[in-house]
Design a protein that fits this description.
The complex is a heterodimer of chains A (526) and B (465). With 526 residues, chain A is α/β, with parallel strands linked by helices. Chain A folds into three domains: 2-88, Gyrase A, domain 2 (2-Layer Sandwich); 172-316, Succinyl-CoA synthetase domains (Rossmann fold); 323-525, Rossmann fold (3-Layer(aba) Sandwich), CATH 3.40.50. Chain A is 44% helix and 19% strand. In chain A, the strands form five sheets. In chain A, strands 15-16-14-17-18-19 form a six-stranded parallel beta sheet, with helices on both faces. Chain A has a five-stranded parallel beta sheet with strand order 10-9-11-12-13, with helices on both faces. In chain A, strands 1-3-2 form a three-stranded antiparallel beta sheet. In chain B, 37% of the residues lie in helices and 20% in strands. Chain B has a four-stranded antiparallel beta sheet with strand order 7-6-3-8. In chain B, strands 11-10-9-13 form a four-stranded antiparallel beta sheet, with helices on both faces. The mean pLDDT of chain B is 94. Classes of the chains: A alpha/beta (526), B alpha+beta (465). Chains A and B meet through α5, β4, α6, α7 and β8 of A and β1, α1, β2 and α13 of B. β4 (117-120) of chain A pairs parallel with β1 (11-15) of chain B, so a sheet runs across the interface.
Chain lengths: 526, 465
Amino acid sequence: MIKTIIKKGAYFDSVSLMQVARKLNSIPGVIDSAVVMATRENKGIIKASGLLTPEVLKAGDSDLAVAVKAKNPPAAEAALKAAEELLNRKPAPAEAGSDRKASGLEDAVKTLDGANLAIVSVAGRFAGALAADCLEKNLNVMLFSDNVPLETEVELKKLALAKGLLVMGPDCGTAIINGAPLAFANSVRRGNIGIVAASGTGLQEVSTLISNEGAGVSQAIGTGSRDVKLEVGALTLLQGLKMLAADSATEVILIVSKPPHPEILKKIIVEIKKIKKPVAAIFLGGEIKGKIKDNFYAANTLEEAALKAVCLSKGWQMARAKEIIYDTNLKAETLARKEAALKKSAGKYLRGLFSGGTFVSEAQVILPGIIGPLWSNAPLDKKWKLKDSMRLTEHAVVDLGEDEFTVGRPHPMIDYSLRNKMIVSEAVRPDVSVILLDVVLGYGSNMRPLDDILPSIRKAFQANKSLSIVSSVTGTETDPQTRSKVVKGLEAEGVLVMPSNAAACRLAGRIITSHKSQVTGHKSRM
Amino acid sequence: MKSTLFNEELKIVNFGLESFRKGLSDAGVKSVQVQFKPPLVSDRKLFEKVEKHASSVAKANRAALEKIFAAQPVLVEMDIASKVIPGMKKNLILHAGPPITWKRMCGPMRGAIAAALMYEGMAKTHAEAEKLAASGKIKYAPCHEHCAVGPMAGIISASMPVFIVKNKAGGNYAYATMNEGLGKVLRYGAYSPEVIERLKWMETGLYPALKAAIALSGGIDLKTIAAQALHMGDEVHNRNRAATSLFYRAIAPAVIKTSPPDVAAKALEFINGNDHFFLNLSMALSKASLDAGRGVKNSSLVVVMARNGTDFGVQLSGGGGRWFTGPAPVPDALYFPGFTKADANPDIGDSAITETNGLGGFAIAAAPAIVQFVGGKAADAVSYTLAMYGITAGENNVYRIPYLDFRGTPTGIDVVKVARTGILPFIDTGVAHKKAGIGQVGAGVLSAPSEPFVKAFEFFAGELR
């Protein structure tokens, strides 16, 4: 049975609502629930779960809809009552004057004298107008929200340029400005490497690798995922390069992006040529052809890009970057052979379950050379698009942060529940021998990663004794979760942890090939 | 222009996910969280149009606000409603809020009208009064359309005595009845014999005494009393204890000089025993002030917020007397023992004129004694007042809040700001039982409903030339 309540004109942000829905689902007898603003998009989502009652259908954009599917009327009533209580719960009252919430932009800029940057993570349909208002108040903007129209992005960025302000985003997950981690960012050393990145996870990976190698970051500017598209023309990336070129604390510049539109790449190259400082760049999944300038260094993986920036930062020979990677590879080879000998898996496939989208791209750059083609829900080559993202076949890597998985649910870096289910369901398949994971630490992410992931890892190993699980842990010692603690916790359960996603991909691939060569080697001896 | 961000101290305004502030505080970066609300109106074109006319709107609002700020509301006289209220007639009953038919009136308003008809001697019993009220022989009109205001049901009938408040700066007048006190009273829809008896005494005992005293005093400056009361813990809507005391001090000597001792004693005892005696004066002074700001072309200022227990209505300075209405919500209240929200009538009364004038809920930071209505913490009250600065055109020149270092109260609700920020006016209120004859069941607060403001904004933006 389904019960519904509609609250007219009651706005709540989606994260609070998801938290409420999560609590409702834990009430005995409740099968499913939806607690959403009754927008057209949300109605579409509810429809799929069968919770679209006539009342919800009738409700409007500014109405809150609570729909509960339960085994019996008392459970439904209990859930509706709980929803009412959770929604009405007043936030812990702030101490007078110390940490009062501002009621709007005007109030905020009055309350915090000299405010100069706004972080915007409200629903996309409100985010564009809000960002424009912030620019009018001379605030730089980090626009975390997605679902902002492309033409709005262009307008915002042009307005910002004219005013000498920076708009990072929309869909900008990570930035580090003046040493402060913004949104999903890590606690990294400060130093002389300035980063411009069109990918949040990519930025987290290179900044933590840089920090873990003992170098540091001056500024890390996020551009948003669409900045390098033809329509946007890399407005923020180009602006970021100019800002870093002019910044006296920045001595090395690192660019992290997916391959830009060819026209836009030309513009970026023109800008790079103007910069006297050394520049390293990765256009993940793409190539940079031809010589750009003497002190320009291209990379194929995030790991390589970060290490090249470290070499430049520390004045090391560039060859040192290759050596570090070579050393890690050597260790991975040995580890892979050992693991394959120990596990003797009959399975031959790798399954990558990722929370970071850029890691899925990087896996597709690295793994095909080792194990052959990979299926994915976010393929670099459309040919390898998974028909059904929930049904993985052969070698496959999935981005669990794609919209198809995140609608109505927090990002998989925060909420591990979907991936936990998949770790177990993939582990029981007899043809799977390696599961490849990423664990992303830092601000904004899950604050208790071990508590949340280890139960499913234990279940996976119980279900499949010959399974190998390989993971990277993106983070630093000073992150709130402390990288070494997380690494130890994973290793204690039998997970093979590598220092980067690239290294984890290579290890996972080597385990697969080691299994193969054991099998073939065995045969040849017969 | 070149960015200077890297050379500035980072200070962050955070809209949305609060968890993002952890990284900032760990890094020692100052930040403020915003309680984000979506705009009331999603049509960007209307905002763009208003933006185009921004300077003329701002100019109009300044002009309207100047007149409101300059108002000098003085209690100058008392008289019988039919003699002084413009358009007042024997068969006309004035009520709170926007226009409404008998058919759509809520219980307490019907009860109050029945009481008024019995008080007028036009009906003997409640049944007779109801029949007459529904017969079409009695006409109804909003107090606000007759320069008057009334708390709760806001009923004014022809022979009721009224305060006459003159805005000495603008020359306009406002009218209000005398406050009957708490418990079973007409304004909450009670119509029992004791209610009528009290009203009769107010007409024959209290009214002559006050009329004579006011005449002798030469007028009482109400604005000063309200301003002082804000420094004494009142917001002059839900708490009027200080203002009533100040009024008592101002009027008592004149009452004693002009009335026989027993009459004077009874009158003064009545005022002394009714903490809310000043409420009707607070409303009249607000009405006299705001009416001065009416009729300014292109002004988006709200000059009336009023409820009739069914609808919530808003009028704009530049709106030519048009009402913009929507259903009145049920207040979030503290209830007297034995009553619950299920007993409560939707919001009712003209008393939101105080909020419109920068008092009441807008000045609640001045009234820590009644913060149990807003969550129990003084900080909550401060938050509510601070939030209202986001939707007002100015800060009051006379009404000031000690806790906020004597900052002027947020005054002059700008419907454009309401529509853009989604912040709705915050109103203190008493709560009537939804059935006639029972009276007050609680007191509390509420946010104004969005619909009247959406309609008012759309009209305003549409009319802008």
